[in-house]
Design goal:
Blueprint (H helix, E strand, L loop, with lengths): L1 H32 L1 H12 L5 H35 L13 H24 L6 H23 L8 H4 L8 H19 L20 H20 L19 H27 L4 H16 L7 H25 L8 H15 L24 H31 L7 H6 L1 H6 L12 E2 L10 E2 L27 E8 L4 H10 L6 E7 L6 E5 L2 E5 L2 E10 L4 H12 L7 E8 L16
Parallel strand pairs: 1-2
Antiparallel strand pairs: 3-7, 3-8, 4-7, 5-6
Helix pairs in contact: 1-4, 1-8, 2-3, 2-4, 2-8, 3-4, 3-5, 4-5, 4-7, 5-13, 7-12, 7-13, 8-9, 8-10, 9-10, 9-11, 10-11, 10-12, 11-12, 12-13, 16-17
Length: 592
């Protein structure tokens, strides 16, 4: 009886331990998935407004295509390649027919694969055809990433071939981020730069992204998800055989290393940015946080606190230097800096970590300052070999795919499409259609004092007519048709529209323009590079009137546009010879 009770208790404990492990794995899997929101915002913020929808679509399709391919074939290829290279046993090529626990662990693997895939989209932003990118995502999820993972992590019944050499990559500093960074750089090189990135003399044109807010918020979301990425790799909470803590005996250390790497990466990038440009560049700080995280991701279970501080700082510090090298020397247009953030940062972290390894054996002067610096010469060779092998494979495979697309003319969009923006060319949408702001009604709603109709609705003030006589006995505008053209600040548009409605002139045409006049030029920075803003963004408002006095329209615009600062704009009044209304055929004042 006692034996039976003991056996039942052990079985219950094993079930409980399995459930805890499964729950932890799924929780961190969902956390890692949320990183896609961060990637979407980070990349969308670093591209032009005309390419935002395209970037968001690529991020969604990366998951949609990649998760299907990794389920049907990617995981199977990874297991079988790993078994073949590592002396293991073959397994099914797909995940169909597996059990619930296997499916959960497959999903845990899949979110790592999709992270590698989505990194590439930031490098090729603004000019890659959607079909080419989606096809590459298919190949990466099916073959490129699975082969890398097989060499380091997966070999059912055997030992991965690079692991046999001593190569260690705990959470994907090279397997995930290195692959994404190297693939992104290779694809950007094959595609060529955006059409207005470099001048004929080789000088670089700075192309700022459209939203620093998006970029920073995306960064912070990624940092949040990264705890799932690194800490979650300590996937086994309880050993089901001994019912003792398994990987969780060092989970606190992994969390600490992750947090320190994140912070020191930002400090490293800030310090170098300040030294190079005299200012702490916001985007470098954001990218530096990510670079620091990438740097400690590979060896996060093997380095001391001082190692986390050192590697995080180095990974962040190299970011501005490597970005300038790629951008100005190699002339590769890596739009979202994926190579210095994910590529070189991941490589450096894995190559340098033996300097601060918690498992290092003292050589020469021995262990310094209680683990602050420990050098084991034999630890560097396998790390370098692993980084080189993964880099070569990723470059060759990526170049083959994008090179084939380029050969048949399907790699990048046409110059006209690139000039117009990929949102319209590839998706037929405008990410920011309501240029006029929230005071524009496009839903057929009723006119009000606060909303100006743009759907053909009647004027707010129907009291005027073309036959109305002025108080001085003459007709408005001496019976002529006038065009009032105003060049004003964009932020004054809403007030101007309301002011025009009050004088009975709600019909207008608005155009985005840029120009220069009395408003002084400004200096801007994008990743530490200074550029001159001497063409200021303005809106051009055109209003044609017949029965409304032109001077009233001018006064209405001037009053609403005035801020008292240089650059408020100008208003011009021009005579119109004739007018013709397309729908009714009316001419002259009746057409207006």
């Amino acid at each position: 009886m006692d034996l039976f009770v003991l056996q039942a208790t052990e079985a219950d404990l094993e079930s409980l331990a399995t459930g805890m492990n499964l729950m932890w794995a799924l929780t961190v899997t969902f956390l890692i998935f949320f990183m896609h929101a961060g990637f979407a915002m980070l990349e969308a913020g670093q591209v032009r407004s005309k390419n935002v929808a395209n970037q968001l679509t690529k991020n969604m399709l990366t998951w949609a295509v990649g998760i299907f391919v990794f389920f049907v074939i990617g995981m199977g290829i990874s297991n079988n390649v790993g078994a073949a290279l590592g002396g293991g046993e073959s397994s099914p090529l797909t995940m169909f027919g597996e059990g619930s626990f296997d499916w959960a662990m497959w999903l845990f693997s899949a979110v790592f694969a999709m992270t590698a895939a989505t990194i590439v989209s930031g490098a090729v932003a603004g000019r890659a055809k959607l079909r080419a990118y989606v096809t590459y995502t298919f190949v990466l999820a099916a073959v490129i990433y699975p082969v890398v993972a097989a060499m380091v992590w997966y070999a059912p019944g055997g030992t991965p071939i690079l692991a046999q050499l001593g190569f260690a990559d705990f959470a994907g500093g090279m397997v995930v981020h290195g692959v994404g960074g190297v693939a992104g750089l290779t694809a950007a090189w094959i595609l060529g730069a955006r059409m207005d990135k470099y001048n004929e003399d080789g000088s670089v044109n700075i192309i700022p992204g459209h939203s620093m807010t998006f970029a920073v918020l995306g960064t912070l979301i990624l940092c949040f998800g990264w705890f799932g990425f690194n800490v979650g790799t300590a996937a086994t909470v309880i050993d089901t055989a001994t019912f003792e803590l398994a990987d969780f005996d060092y989970v606190g250390s992994v969390a600490m290393v992750t947090a320190l790497g994140m912070g020191l990466g930002a400090l490293g990038a800030s310090a170098v940015s300040l030294a190079m440009n005299g200012k702490v560049d916001t985007l470098y700080v954001a990218n530096g946080m990510l670079a620091g995280l990438v740097g400690v991701t590979g060896p996060t279970d093997l380095i001391t606190p001082m190692g986390a501080i050192a590697i995080g700082f180095i990974a962040g510090a190299q970011l501005p230097i490597v970005f300038k090298l790629v951008d100005e020397k190699l002339k590769i247009d890596d739009v979202c800096a994926v190579f210095p953030v994910h590529g070189t940062a991941g490589m450096l972290g894995l190559i340098l970590f033996p300097l601060w390894s918690i498992e290092g054996t003292a050589i020469g002067s021995g262990l310094v300052a209680g683990g602050i610096l420990s050098i084991e010469a034999s630890a560097f060779a396998p790390q370098i070999i692993g980084v080189v092998v993964i880099t070569i494979w990723t470059v060759l495979a990526t170049a083959a795919v994008w090179g084939a697309f380029k050969l048949v003319g399907e790699a990048r969009v046409t110059p006209d499409h690139e000039r117009d923006g990929l949102d319209l060319a590839e998706h037929g949408v405008d990410t920011y259609p309501e240029f006029g702001g929230p005071d524009v009604a496009t839903d057929g709603g009723h006119s009000s004092d606060d909303v100006i109709r743009t759907d053909g609705g009647e004027r707010l003030d129907e009291s005027r007519s073309s036959s109305e006589l002025r108080s001085d006995g003459g007709e408005p505008n001496d019976g002529e048709i006038k065009m009032i053209t105003a060049i004003v600040r964009p932020d004054r548009l809403g007030a101007i529209k309301k002011s025009l409605a009050k004088v009975g002139a709600p019909s207008l045409t608005v155009t985005n323009v840029s120009g220069r006049g009395s408003q002084p030029a400004k200096k801007g920075q994008w990743r530490g590079e200074e550029y001159t803003v001497d063409l200021h963004q303005k809106v051009k408002i055109e209003c044609v009137v017949a029965d409304v006095p032109a001077e009233e329209v001018v006064d209405a615009i001037a009053d609403a546009a005035n801020t008292g600062e240089p650059g408020d704009g100008k208003v011009f009044v021009l005579p119109i010879e004739d007018a013709y209304q397309v729908r009714t055929g009316k001419t002259g004042q009746d057409a207006v």
